[in-house]
């Protein structure tokens, strides 16, 4: 069946064995460009420099092609002055060895290989690719955006048309393909950010930009801050123009003013980033590093605090986005209150996805473009105490006192982002959202396990907003994610920490329609099982 075909980058020994055999069948027996041999194997002369894109079905390589970016290219030898035919470019590669098995030859294989290859080239920064296109397939290449140039090359056995493809031409053909597509449903966004935003939020964002000094903006800015504080039971919040990393750097800057040492907890990528932020501000810290997706041992934390009376604050991630792990703020609050130390939380993936109570929390960070279901670009720092001037003269943008003492808005901020966030918060019902997504998340995890897929984090500790799938080693999270995108499901898999572990994430930062889950599971079963 066509749906069982997988287009991927070759990585397994058996795949390379079949590539060499298909290379022989095509370019010795079918197109006699090389001498025959009794092994019926042809290893390309650039084999070690090639990246092979292949079509696989039931452990059989049905088709292949190779990508290489080292000059001279094969086409350099066929066509003198190759660059004189090409438009200006930054990075060039050559596509070669397009072949498919006679017994399973189908235009979908060729089209799929080219589509996967174009995406690979774009992802690796190549803005132009050249190919010696088989004359019989020229219309297919042109449909993908390839442009013929120069004279036909080759011999009586095989004639080729030199062609090039630029990122601009490819983007143009894809737009045309989308306009003529019979698929009417919009792509489903299942990433931790960006998230799908409501039409009311889009309309708010599209309003005319106003000055951050204007009375109109001051009113909506104050209202937005109140809505934020009411959502999480905090006394104060400052809105910054930047990412969650900026908010956490502000927290680190404020902690540099606190006498004593700190304890930073990590059981994932973003806990490690808190440690990095603390170290960049030269904070005196102790660390507790737990295996990813494993809960912290509260007894161990308490023991460290009791043994070191200089520890005055603790910093941890509430929802560890890299795994979907929820660290228990209630336990951390109890430890901190009992030992009279300050608790700081990274709530970037928890605020807006689950109920969060920031009472007795010293600092907490979040962003606009995740659970709060607005556009990325704003970050927030919550706090429950009065700020004081910094003796060390922190950079103004990182000094919360600069915000707290200002009667207006101290620094430039894009009004459209604040207005959009305000619109999202006005319609926000966290209890309803949490209940609905918890039910869907529990069902999704059960169905994934039924399909033979391993869900990373135990349900007891998991966020309904982030489900992490640990894929078997014989599948590539990059390939699976790209295939799901082709079907309209945008999951999360491109971050280095996910690629290194072969993980794929399905995220529900907003509320997702019930209608998408069965089609998504069907596609997952087809590409993974």
Largest sheet: 8 strands, mixed
Count of separate DSSP helical elements:
17
Radius of gyration (CA) equals: 28 Å
- CATH-defined fold name of the largest domain: Aspartate Aminotransferase, domain 2
Task: Tell me what the structure shows.
The chain is an alpha/beta fold. It folds into 3 domains: 2-180, 3-Layer(aba) Sandwich (Aminopeptidase); 188-193 and 430-528, Aspartate Aminotransferase, domain 1 (Alpha-Beta Complex); 199-426, Type I PLP-dependent aspartate aminotransferase-like (Major domain) (Aspartate Aminotransferase, domain 2, 3-Layer(aba) Sandwich), CATH 3.40.640. It has helices spanning 13-30, 74-78, 107-123, 138-143, 167-180, 199-205, 215-232, 244-255, 269-280, 298-307, 329-339, 400-404, 415-426, 430-450, 477-486, 496-501, 517-528, and strands at 6-9, 51-57, 60-68, 92-100, 128-134, 147-148, 153-154, 159-166, 188-189, 236-241, 261-266, 285-289, 311-317, 319-320, 325-326, 342-346, 363-367, 378-383, 454-455, 466-470, 489-490, 503-507. The protein is elongated, with a radius of gyration of 28 Å. The two termini are 14 Å apart.
